[in-house]
Design goal:
The complex is a heterodimer of chains A (119) and B (881). Chain A has 119 residues and is α+β, with helices and mostly antiparallel strands. In chain A, 65% of the residues lie in helices and 13% in strands. Chain A has five helices and three strands, in the order H-H-E-H-H-E-E-H. Chain A is globular, with a radius of gyration of 17 Å. The two termini of chain A are 21 Å apart. In chain B, helix 4 packs antiparallel against helix 10 and helix 14 packs antiparallel against helix 23. Chain B is globular and about 135 Å long. The chains are: A alpha+beta (119), B alpha+beta (881).
């Protein structure tokens, strides 16, 4: 992918998308905010950068909606941190979001191929 | 407290984030100070992050709501025409319904002005099998009811009476009432000065006392501060004023408007007719009382029923079939209109529901047409991850936004039109007091409208979500969910049918009343002055029979006054009559062709000479009653065409002798009068009249005869001349009332006309609603088929063809709606037959008018969409998805 496109997607991280990414990240187990941000950065090969200014509001919003829950725990290196984990509702939500996302990708791909034909 | 705790936790969470980031950096070899700085830099603005995060806690729901509402508002704003229509529809129906219902209910159920008592009930006398029966009960029965009842306290009785009141400045005719001493206490009438009646006032030896109205006090006593204690004469007996009622109180019933009250027992004793107080066959008083604290209306009904049965058992001769009915008190409860009141209210409740249904159908159609435009939008939202709940919530928000705006508009409308309407329909200013919109009704209508709007907004979405998302995202798919247009057509037909029903009912009611409106009772009502004088002895009917000499003197006085009035230069013709159109019960008496024949009920009217001429009529056969038909001569009669046809068919009735009344007194038919509504409205399609010469009538001369003067020139000079001449004949005879025939007729049907006006306003609003709804559907269909039209125009269809087709489609719906509506109307009309005057439930005029109006409205409503359909850009239409 060209670099400009990668830069652009960093700018346009949609709200619904971030939710999906957070839920997906937490599928691997409980994690604290810092850990989640690191995981997103790493997993998207720095294509998305989770800004704290959007990440924390998103975490609290998801918790408010009941899709994730949090708990204070002490990490391996004795650091107390707020760990987030998926709830049952969150799991269901993730599943439906995923299928929807795939549909959208499908549809987008279909649209794109139409355009290619016309062009 | 909880928030503080969460704040602390958030600070801790951010701190732990920073600590971990710092540690990572230190592990990667940065110095502690640098690492901390870098972590902070990377984290960004800490307070801002904390703030945005905090916003997620408690405000998330509110924020979503606001978002939804913003969304709803935006959608409304996007298609302002559609939104305005929806808002207008809901506002019209909710506001209009509230107003009309409140006013009707107000008129039929509010107490008279100045009556402040609570839990008041009226007890009236009825006769089974008669719809309009006399509500009066005899005084001995009243006494029994009052002393025995445990459910009704302070039972008051009163007898309305015409009173001639003498004060220093002259003698004046007033309506008043003879009342039991507890009358003012029970009704809770406040006094502006002096006192109410007390139990002592019932002792005749103390002399008569009187309470006067605020109006009387101002008009006749010049509002003098020492009115209390002043003396006046009432029907020739001296009385002392002991109280003045607070402004506004004119008796417990809407009509006739009383100004003077006297204790009942002492009055009858003073005029020497105490016998009437013991006569169980003499219906004398109206009754009202207060429901005891523990009693219910049903309990009172049972008790009074039992007491009435017992009375009937004890006095079978006097009380043949008397029954009592206990109802909630209102100013109209004892008037003829009260018999109709429950029907009117029921009618209006039904009409309210109908219009709500119509509007729901309309709003549903509007929403359906919008949902077509929105299907793709919704699909995209779903694809982008909006949850179903959220989509529904947005739609609910949209519906709520419409209803919210509409309800505000409706409240304003109800408040404003209520005031306006009451001014339009009020019989006399101030009679009804203030009628506030009935907010209970408003709330009920609003809730219904809201539920309907939201339901119809959301329903399409529920349907959509079952569908797969993908087709909607692809281009080239049809833009409408299948089956939609049939639903919307059904809604249009339903709505049209209800509009027809509403319009025909209103039309029938209106026509039946307008027939009797001034100018259309069948005689010339212009330049006709009515002067009512009190020539008879007031209360004569309750005292002993007048002597033969007194009777003759009475008839002679009448003849003398008539001669003088007829001779006036300003008067073209003059007559007199025992009664004028006055909205009271019109009684009938049997008239038979001969001794063997079955008698026919007819309205019998003793009238003066030249009666028909004064009304501007000429007999269609024979001659009319003239001065030549004197006392002692052959008794003559003029019958109207209806009665002539009924009795004689095509034969000439002239010269036949009819047997008139229960006493079967003979009278020779000398003429046939045209059919006219001589008494104003009667609840009969073909009223039968028989006129006798007043001078030849049996019994007493009329107490309050009315002279009909057909005047030339100005009304002012006619009234002045009439007053002068009457005073010259006998200065002691007071003039009771002077009014023109037009004014008189108008006042007769005031309540019914008011209701008809309301119904008409209602029906017109419903017509607007129906037209708007049709417009919405035509627009919807047009939009749905734009591409179709494009294709057809591309292959050669002309614009005119397309236009014809769209209008044709609308008309097909109209015919169906009209057909269903007319069937409903005939059913409803036949059911309401009894309420109509002079028109049949299937009055062709009304039906034709409704048919024409609705067809025109329907064509108008579909014209714009058709016009647009015919002018679509073919290329764009074809490209449309």
């Amino acid at each position: 992918m060209p670099r400009t496109v990668r830069y652009k997607s960093r700018m346009d991280l949609m709200q619904g998308t971030l939710d999906l990414i957070i839920l997906q990240t937490l599928r691997r187990g409980p994690q604290h905010g810092y850990g989640i941000s690191q995981a997103i950065n790493a997993a998207s090969r720095e294509a998305f950068k989770a800004e704290t200014g959007t990440l924390y509001p998103a975490l609290h919003r998801l918790e408010e909606k009941g899709w994730i829950a949090s708990e204070w725990k002490t990490s391996d290196n004795k650091q107390r941190a707020n760990y987030y984990k998926l709830t049952a509702a969150g799991r269901k939500r993730l599943a439906s979001e995923q299928s929807r996302w795939l549909q959208l990708v499908d549809a987008m791909a279909a649209l794109m191929s139409v355009r290619d034909h016309e062009a | 407290m909880r928030r503080n705790e969460r704040d602390r936790r958030l600070a801790e969470e951010i701190e732990s984030h920073l600590a971990m980031a710092t540690r990572d950096r230190i592990e990667r070899g940065e110095s502690p100070a640098e690492a901390r700085q870098a972590a902070l830099r990377e984290f960004g603005n800490v307070p801002l992050v904390a703030q945005t995060t905090r916003d997620m806690w408690s405000w998330i729901r509110l924020e979503q709501l606001l978002q939804d509402l913003r969304f709803g508002a935006r959608i409304l704003w996007q298609s302002p025409g559609l939104s305005l229509t929806a808002v207008l529809l809901v506002a019209l129906v909710v506001g209009g319904n509230t107003t009309v219902y409140s006013v009707v209910r107000g008129v039929l159920t509010s107490p008279a002005r100045g009556v402040l008592g609570e839990r008041l009930v009226t007890i009236k006398h009825t006769e089974p099998g008669r719809m309009l029966s006399d509500p009066y009960v005899s005084f001995p029965n009243y006494r029994d009811y009052a002393s025995q009842s445990t459910t009704v306290r302070g039972l008051a009785g009163w007898s309305d009476e015409r009173l001639t009141v003498g004060i220093a400045s002259g003698s004046f005719a007033y309506f008043g009432a003879l009342v039991t001493p507890n009358y003012f206490d029970t009704l809770g009438v406040p006094m502006a000065a002096g006192r109410r009646f007390r139990a002592e006032d019932d002792r005749a030896s103390d002399g008569l006392v009187a309470v006067v109205s605020d109006r009387f006090w101002r008009e006749r006593l010049q509002g003098s501060a020492d009115a209390i204690g002043q003396m006046l004469t009432v029907n020739g007996r001296a009385a002392t004023i002991v109280g003045v009622t607070a402004a506004g109180f004119r008796g417990a019933t809407l009509t006739p408007g009383e100004d003077l009250w006297l204790p009942l027992t002492p009055y009858y004793q003073a005029i020497g007719s105490s016998a009437v107080l013991e006569n169980r066959g003499q219906w004398l008083v109206l009754m009202a009382g207060q429901l005891a604290p523990a009693a219910t209306l049903a309990g009172a009904r049972a008790e009074f029923m039992a007491m009435a049965n017992q009375l009937r058992a004890s006095y079978p001769a006097d009380l043949k079939d008397a029954r009592t009915v206990v109802t909630d008190y209102s100013a109209a409860a004892l008037l003829p209109v009260a018999v109709m009141a429950p029907r009117f209210l029921a009618l209006f409740s039904i009409v309210t529901l109908l219009t709500l249904l119509i509007v729901s159908a309309n709003v549903a159609n509007l929403m359906l047409s919008r949902s077509v435009m929105r299907q793709r939008d919704t699909a995209v939202r779903q694809a982008l991850g909006a949850s179903r709940v959220r989509i529904i919530r947005m739609l609910v928000a949209e519906g709520t936004a419409i209803s919210a705006v509409a309800c505000v508009a409706a409240s304003l409308l109800a408040w404003w039109t209520g005031r306006l309407l009451i001014r339009i329909v009020e019989p006399q200013a101030g009679v009804l007091g203030e009628i506030e919109p009935d907010w209970q009704v408003a709330a009920y209508a609003m809730v219904l409208a809201m539920v309907a709007t939201v339901a119809f907004t959301t329903a399409p979405a529920v349907r959509t979500w079952r569908l797969r998302v993908l087709p909607w995202l692809r281009s080239g798919e049809p833009g409408v969910a299948p089956g939609r247009s049939r639903l919307s057509s059904v809604l249009v037909v339903t709505q049209l049918a209800f509009s027809v029903l509403l319009l025909t009912s209103a039309g029938l009611a209106y026509r039946s009343l307008s027939l009797l409106d001034s100018g259309r009772p069948g005689f010339d009502t212009d330049n006709l002055l009515l002067v009512t004088v009190r020539t008879g002895r007031t209360g004569a009917y309750v005292t002993s029979e007048p002597s033969a000499a007194q009777r003759e003197a009475g008839f002679a006085l009448l003849a003398r006054m008539h001669e003088r009035l007829a001779a006036l230069g300003d008067v073209a013709s003059a007559t007199y009559s025992r009664r004028v159109p006055n909205g009271n019960f019109v009684g009938t008496n049997p008239v038979a062709r001969d001794a063997e024949a079955e008698p026919t009920p007819a309205i019998i009217r003793p009238v003066g000479p030249d009666y028909l001429r004064a009304l501007g009529l000429t007999p269609s056969a024979g001659r009319e009653i003239t001065m030549a038909d004197r006392r002692g001569g052959t008794r003559v009669a003029v019958i109207n065409q209806h009665l002539a046809t009924e009795l004689f068919g095509a034969q000439s009735p002239l010269g036949h002798t009819l047997l008139v009344g229960d006493r079967r007194e003979p009278a020779e038919v000398i003429g046939v009068a045209p059919n006219a509504l001589y008494d104003g409205p009667v609840h009969e399609a073909r009223p039968r009249y028989l006129f006798l010469a007043q001078q030849q009538a049996a019994g007493d001369p009329p107490v309050d005869p009315t002279f009909y003067l057909r005047y030339r020139g100005s009304l002012d000079s006619a009234t002045a001349a009439a007053s002068r001449v009457l005073a010259e004949v006998d200065a002691s005879v007071p003039i009771v009332a002077m009014s023109t025939m037009n004014a008189r007729l108008e006042s007769v049907t005031v309540l019914e006309r008011m209701i008809a006006t309301l119904l008409m306003v209602f029906a017109l609003a419903s017509l607007v609603v129906a037209a708007l709804g049709q417009y919405a559907v035509a627009m919807f269909n047009m939009r749905r088929r734009t591409k179709d039209f494009g294709v057809r125009m591309a292959i050669g269809a002309s614009a005119a063809q397309i236009q014809r087709e769209v209008i044709g489609e609308a008309l097909r719906l109209t015919w169906r709606g009209l057909a269903v509506g007319f069937v409903l109307s005939v059913v409803a009309g036949v059911a309401a037959r009894g309420v109509l005057f002079g028109v049949t439930p299937t009055d062709p005029g009304t039906y034709l008018a409704v048919f024409a109006i609705l067809s025109a409205a329907s064509i108008a409503a579909s014209y714009l969409p058709a016009w647009r359909a015919a002018r679509i850009n073919v290329v764009e239409a074809l490209r449309q998805e």
